[in-house]
Automatic annotation (TrEMBL):
<dbReference type="Pfam" id="PF00291">
    <property type="entry name" value="PALP"/>
</dbReference>
<feature type="modified residue" description="N6-(pyridoxal phosphate)lysine">
    <location>
        <position position="88"/>
    </location>
</feature>
<dbReference type="InterPro" id="IPR001926">
    <property type="entry name" value="TrpB-like_PALP"/>
</dbReference>
<keyword id="KW-0963">Cytoplasm</keyword>
<protein>
    <recommendedName>
        <fullName>L-cysteine desulfhydrase Cds1</fullName>
        <ecNumber>4.4.1.1</ecNumber>
    </recommendedName>
</protein>
<dbReference type="InterPro" id="IPR036052">
    <property type="entry name" value="TrpB-like_PALP_sf"/>
</dbReference>
<dbReference type="InterPro" id="IPR047586">
    <property type="entry name" value="Cds1"/>
</dbReference>
<keyword id="KW-0456">Lyase</keyword>
<keyword id="KW-0663">Pyridoxal phosphate</keyword>
<comment type="function">
    <text>A cysteine desulfhydrase that generates hydrogen sulfide, H(2)S. The H(2)S produced by this enzyme modulates the balance between respiration and glycolysis, and contributes to redox homeostasis. Probably eliminates toxic levels of Cys (which can induce oxidative stress).</text>
</comment>
<feature type="domain" description="Tryptophan synthase beta chain-like PALP">
    <location>
        <begin position="59"/>
        <end position="350"/>
    </location>
</feature>
<comment type="similarity">
    <text>Belongs to the cysteine synthase/cystathionine beta-synthase family. Cds1 subfamily.</text>
</comment>
<dbReference type="InterPro" id="IPR050214">
    <property type="entry name" value="Cys_Synth/Cystath_Beta-Synth"/>
</dbReference>
């Protein structure tokens, strides 16, 4: 069953879809791209998106406290400070510029996205900025706070019961409304300028240049579309750095199996509990050949890691941050065991206040059958001794 919700009133499934179709322009004749009015609109839309980037200071690079004697520095690139509160703000900006410059995003036509949350929040922001409607197709289990944020930015939420049907439903909705299906899972890796232009990798290296280990030994990312790991890995290779790239994958995701088995057709039979990352299919934007390592991270370990992060630096973060942080901890422990020094970088992908009813709720953990106790103990042992419990 699919339902569409907007900030006005909930509606029954079929009525909701009809309301969505009715409230957006659906002319059968396409936009005349030589029309001066369209060219004026396009230039203004691109200017607004570029101006958003120009107004924004870069995100912070935070240090996670580790014992000085280890000779290892652990950093978190805090992407939660973007205007829409997540790493996906960069992606949404790139996707909107890509869609506008390709002539795909047009006046009064809706932009539609298949998203479990944060990308949709950011795309709703940019849709409102340029003045077009926005509809997010998402699993019904998406956090209520993310839905609220999408609606706050003027978007609508269109729910599906099975996350594996998001892609087809988003494409069908675009067809019915005459809108543009943004398709982040296909275009994330190509819409971002991985050679530079202040992408996330270039930003990391600029911020590290005065640190004692300016070239990190490892950068740990997580994968939803795969666009971030592709951008970072390509930049590292392009700039001829020796940094290695690790991608941390949650339960109920096929990326790890597809990478280890070299299977581009790998699938998973259910959706990820860690919102924003992990996919049931190998997404076109995931570039396995660019990365050096993958780790499979239990969901309970991801939750234990974000709770440890709050204890260490006083910041709540989403579950995807915990997935990457758990893997970063393990890499640091390996470096300690090998007597190596250096730096490791991972990401704060979005803020934890979006997930108070999930990753910070003991009731939700019990409902999901997740016991974080052994993982929390493992982190405590690691932070005290540098050793990774076996």
């Amino acid at each position: 069953m699919n339902t569409t919700r907007n900030s006005a009133t909930p509606a029954p499934p079929r009525a909701a879809a009809a309301a969505t179709d009715t409230c957006t322009a659906t002319p059968t004749i396409d936009v005349d791209r030589s029309d001066p009015a369209y060219r004026t609109w396009l230039k203004e839309a691109v200017r607004k998106v570029q101006a958003d980037a120009n107004r924004s200071a870069d995100t912070h690079l935070l240090r996670f406290p580790l014992p000085e004697r280890w000779g290892i520095d652990l950093y978190l690139k805090d992407e939660s400070t973007h205007p829409t509160g997540s790493l996906k703000h960069r992606l949404a900006r790139s996707l909107f510029l890509y869609g506008l410059c390709n002539g795909w995003i047009r006046p009064d036509r809706p932009v539609i996205e298949a998203s479990s949350g944060s990308t949709a929040v950011s795309e709703a922001y940019f849709a409102k900025l340029v003045g077009v409607p926005f509809i997010a197709v998402m699993p019904r289990t998406t956090s209520s706070e993310k839905c609220r944020l999408i609606e706050f930015h003027g978007g609508s939420c269109h729910f599906v019961d099975d996350s594996r049907t998001m892609y087809e439903e988003a494409a069908a909705l675009a067809e019915r409304t005459g809108g543009h299906y943004m398709d982040q899972f296909t275009y994330a890796e190509r819409a971002t300028d991985w050679r530079g232009n202040n992408n996330i990798a270039e930003s990391m290296y600029q911020q590290l240049r005065l640190e004692r280990y300016p070239e990190p030994a490892w950068i740990v990312a997580t994968a939803g579309t795969g666009g971030t790991s592709a951008t970072i890995a390509r930049y590292v290779h392009y700039m001829q750095h020796d940094t290695r790239i690790c991608v941390a994958d949650p339960e109920n995701s096929c990326f790890f199996d597809g990478w280890t088995q070299g299977d581009p057709h790998a699938t998973a039979d259910r959706g990820s509990r860690i919102e924003g990352i992990g996919r049931p299919r190998m997404e076109p934007s995931f570039v396995p050949g660019a990365i050096d390592r993958m780790m499979k991270v239990p969901d309970a370990a991801s939750v234990a890691a974000v709770r440890a992060l709050e204890g260490a630096i006083g910041r709540k973060a989403g579950g995807s941050t915990g997935t990457g942080l758990w893997s970063a901890f393990k890499i640091v422990a390996e470096m300690v065991a090998q007597g190596r020094t250096g730096s490791v970088v991972t990401l704060i992908c979005d803020p934890g206040d979006r997930y108070l009813d999930k990753y910070y709720s003991d009731a939700w953990l019990a409902e999901q059958g997740l016991d974080i106790t052994p993982y929390a103990a493992a982190i405590e042992t690691f932070l005290a001794t540098g050793a990774w419990p076996t």
